[in-house]
Amino acid sequence: MKGIFISLEGSDGAGKSTQIANVRQFFEDRGITPLMTREPGGTAISEKLREILLDKNNSEMSPIAEMMIYASARAQLVAEFIRPALERGEVIICDRYVDSSIAYQAYGRGLGDMVEKVNSYAIDGILPDITFFLDLDPAIGRERISTRAGASTPDRLEQEKMDFHYRVYNGYKAVAEANSERIAVIDANRSIEEIKEDIYDRLKRLCEEKGI
Length: 212
Prior knowledge:
Elements: E1 4-10, H1 16-28, E2 35-38, H2 44-54, H3 63-87, E3 91-95, H4 98-108, H5 114-123, E4 130-135, H6 138-146, H7 162-178, E5 183-187, H8 192-210
Parallel strand pairs: 1-3, 1-4, 2-3, 4-5
Helix pairs in contact: 1-8, 2-3, 3-5, 4-5, 4-7
């Protein structure tokens, strides 16, 4: 693939939205307009599936159904958006990707290896060039969210109990350890500027490797 694919991961409240904006600015400062997308979502079909997944009224959704809907949304995003953009040589910045499913469904829901097997079809061999995992204790993240002005009503996953969120967090750490060549672990319990500097250092190295 000619393009660059970057994803950002982390527990709720870890500061992904802020750092996604910073990653976008990094490339814009270099005269490159990156394509922005998110998971679940990013295409008309995937956004409809997102509504189902996050609807707090869908509390009866089974873990396996949840896993398959996430994978379906991802498969559509890859086929319709990510693969064509990379083939054109675009830079893509994605808010969450397959690592989220491993963390949330394999570890959070306890579904184990089947999550990776199902998603191997969804991603069709496409993984990010680099993934930034914003490492923050879920309790701190929840506290941050609760103090935000105009905070929105928690969605179906945000409403889960803390033991679920800690299983997800431990899943993220396990995935990061197993994929250390791709996943950059960023200490998110610091200032926005310090986190940004770490991310920018890694992006500069990636751009050098890609020759841009």
